[in-house]
Amino acid sequence: MTLRSVIVGCGSYLPERVVTNAELARRVDTTDEWIVERTGIRQRHVAAEGEFTSHLAINAARKALAHAGIDATDIDAIILATTTPDQTFPATATRVQAALGLSGGFAFDVQAVCSGFIYALAVADNFIRAGQVRHVLVIGAETFSRILDWNDRSTCVLFGDGAGAVVVRAMPDTTQTAEGRPRGILSTHLHSDGRFTDLLRVDGGPSTTGSTGHVRMEGKEVFRHAVVNLASVLEEALMANGLNAAEVDWIVPHQANKRIIEGTARKLGLSSDRMVVTIERHANTSAASIPLALDEAVRDGRIRPGHLVVLEAMGGGLTWGAGVLRW
Ligand code: ACO
Predict the structure, then answer these.
(1) Residue-range definition of the domain harbouring residue 65
(2) 284 given a catalytic annotation
(3) Distance from the CA of 46 to the CA of which of 25, 187, 288, 303 falls in 20 to 30 A?
(4) Is 225 in the active site?
């Protein structure tokens, strides 16, 4: 039987503590006005001491399982996208697996920085279409606050912590919406270009410095690549499905910068009210930002059955990608 992946549940979790721009302006030479004008960010959530990426991921995963109406024991695989694992090894996904009381199936992490969730979803989709698994828990979870240089105003104002998760189910590829359209993940599109590793990176790692390192970014250059790469992967994704931009109900973009999100909408000729935007409250939560935004838009009723939803992201690597799905 030919199979298709269908997202049947989602969930998310944000740490309790909120850090406003005003609070950051007391720490580094910045202002609320500068941050809002250049990025759209007003606040971010920051994990408490002793609260790890795995804890955020577990909370989001439990909510996604409840939303899907399935037991953890139904999960065959956990794929967790993160750049901020609890430890260099083992994979944080295995901690989630244990916390959910699972000892069967398999769990591993995916590292593609801010594109991580799209990469993880693409991997899950391929496992499902190959017939190897029935239910996959795909998670994006980050504690970026732990790898920020809190004295570097050009990066510390941009990021936040959080987690989002989806449950993906293998269903026959004849699965349709009420309107008779194919339901589920229609395609995924991944890209990377390692010539640009230095534009966005941490200045440490297990094999180089033996330390974790801090985020370093050539913001302007990354911005330039983001606008070009996101427009091109969105065009590719729509063309692969014979769709045009007017047919898209919602774009759920990675939340790096409001100006990038609005620029992408303009390039596609879409009104910006078709973009799900959470950056004001969440900032850039890297691999967590898409599932966080998706969960919000599903729960508040913006994304409804039958809607055509496009996910897109770009991050360190450089990596970028998109996914097209019918909810
Ligand atoms: N407060 C006040 N001033 C600041 C701050 C701050 N927090 N940060 C930088 N500045 C200053 C700079 O020092 C510079 O001053 P100068 O002109 O005197 O040198 C000035 O503001 C302009 O700085 P730019 O870096 O040119 O500002 P820009 O308009 O490019 O905005 C930003 C910076 C927000 C980082 C933007 O470039 C951006 O969003 N880049 C893309 C980020 C992104 O998409 N990342 C990808 C995903 S992230 C991931 O994968 C981990």
Answers:
(1) 3-172
(2) yes
(3) 303
(4) no
